[in-house]
């Protein structure tokens, strides 16, 4: 059984994080420290434009991370107050009872994440993965999807040489010919697809009962003391998604939008439109519904799978404390939209 060393650090870091941010995440520079990843999504335009700073009235220190596991470690330690993570690291963090809340579903993942096999590796079918070196960032959504796919195919993961690499490391290892396959997202995905073929992607894995999503999370202590910041953060993100949903082709065809997304993610400009189409971005009204029930269920089911695979030690009886719709409800009202209240 393989296990990321970052996972073993999370419990200790959680305790340190509580002490580090006992004042609600206050830093000497008064900036809010936000972790983002290189996922291609509409809100990167708002980030590039400084829309979050304008809406919240706060300085934001944007820090780029390569994986959700790294984001969770930083959030747990108190270095980060708001972070972008996938459903698998979110479930692992919640199962360890870290002090976080999911306040926005950033993307329902489809073809934006895929398992690619290298040309010349002689992998024509799933069973050919046995004995091969497959790279994936551990405790990521792609890690979860890879394990779910192997289970669906009846391939024992212990018979596959699964290695823990960051996306940039995957791209480099691919060029050297050090790995036979990889399950990853862009920009690394686009790079490896140039010399490989897709064996499956997360849209197909979702039909096998293992859907994945990305989400924004916030430390509970920071959210308690800064609810307006979190609400406005959700509003800006939701409005960016609404602009894309209103006219996907126009949005992705705007050179300014493409330049900003490519600059923050490292994706190729010509691939941005297809990458945006590879995920679904919920509206604020849909967010309220998702966060009122579906997300709690999904986190619980993901946690159960991770425990089955030996990635977490326990599954909680209730994951509601780690998911909240109150900020997207406030964001919808601020945007002049009506949503059904989740209050009981």
Specify the overall morphology.
Answer: globular
The proportion of residues in beta strands is: 15-25%
Which secondary-structure class do the elements indicate?
alpha/beta
- Main β-sheet description: 6 strands, mixed
What is the H/E string? HEHHEHEHEEEHEHEHEHEHHHHHEHH
The low-confidence runs, each spanning 5 or more residues with pLDDT under 50, are 1-28
Tell me the strand order in the biggest sheet. 2-1-3-10-4-11
Helix content: 40-55%
Mean pLDDT: 90
How does this model look, in words?
- With 344 residues, the protein is an alpha/beta fold.
- The chain has 16 helices and 11 strands.
- It has helices at 5-20, 43-49, 51-56, 68-77, 87-95, 141-153, 167-176, 188-193, 202-207, 220-225, 227-246, 248-253, 255-265, 272-277, 284-308, 326-334, and strands at 32-36, 60-64, 82-86, 100-109, 113-118, 133-136, 161-164, 181-185, 196-201, 213-219, 279-280.
- β6, α6 and β7 (161-164) form a beta-alpha-beta unit.
- It is globular, with a radius of gyration of 19 Å.
- 54% of the residues are buried.
What's the quick description here?
This protein is α/β, with parallel strands linked by helices and 344 residues long. It has helices at residues 5-20, 43-49, 51-56, 68-77, 87-95, 141-153, 167-176, 188-193, 202-207, 220-225, 227-246, 248-253, 255-265, 272-277, 284-308, 326-334; strands spanning 32-36, 60-64, 82-86, 100-109, 113-118, 133-136, 161-164, 181-185, 196-201, 213-219, 279-280.
């Amino acid at each position: 059984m393989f296990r990321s060393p970052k996972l073993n650090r999370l419990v200790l870091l959680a305790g340190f994080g509580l002490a580090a941010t006992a004042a609600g995440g206050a830093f000497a520079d008064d900036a809010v420290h936000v972790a983002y990843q290189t996922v291609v999504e509409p809100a990167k335009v708002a980030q590039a434009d400084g829309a979050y700073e304008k809406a919240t009235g706060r300085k934001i220190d944007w820090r780029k991370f390569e994986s959700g596991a790294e984001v969770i470690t930083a959030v747990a330690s108190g270095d980060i107050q708001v972070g972008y993570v996938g459903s698998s690291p979110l479930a692992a963090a919640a199962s360890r009872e870290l002090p976080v809340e999911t306040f926005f579903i950033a993307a329902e993942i489809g073809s934006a994440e895929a398992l690619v096999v290298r040309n010349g590796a002689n992998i024509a079918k799933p069973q050919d993965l046995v004995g091969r070196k497959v790279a994936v960032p551990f405790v990521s959504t792609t890690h979860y999807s890879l394990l779910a796919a192997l289970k669906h195919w009846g391939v024992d993961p212990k018979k596959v040489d699964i290695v823990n690499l960051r996306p940039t490391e995957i791209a480099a290892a691919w060029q050297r010919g050090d790995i036979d396959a990889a399950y990853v997202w862009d920009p690394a995905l686009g790079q490896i697809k140039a010399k490989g073929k897709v064996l499956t992607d997360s849209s197909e894995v979702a039909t096998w009962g293992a859907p994945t999503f990305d989400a924004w999370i916030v430390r509970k202590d920071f959210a308690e003391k800064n609810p307006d910041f979190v609400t406005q953060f959700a509003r800006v993100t939701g409005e960016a998604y609404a602009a894309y949903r209103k006219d996907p082709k126009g949005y992705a065809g705007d050179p300014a939008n493409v330049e900003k997304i490519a600059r923050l993610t490292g994706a190729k400009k010509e691939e941005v439109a297809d990458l945006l189409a590879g995920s679904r971005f919920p509206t604020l009204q849909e967010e309220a519904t998702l966060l009122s029930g579906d997300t709690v269920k999904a986190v619980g089911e993901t946690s159960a799978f991770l425990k089955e695979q030996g990635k977490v030690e326990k599954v909680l009886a209730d994951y509601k404390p780690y998911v909240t719709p109150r900020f997207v409800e406030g964001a919808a009202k601020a945007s002049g939209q009506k949503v059904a209240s989740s209050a009981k």
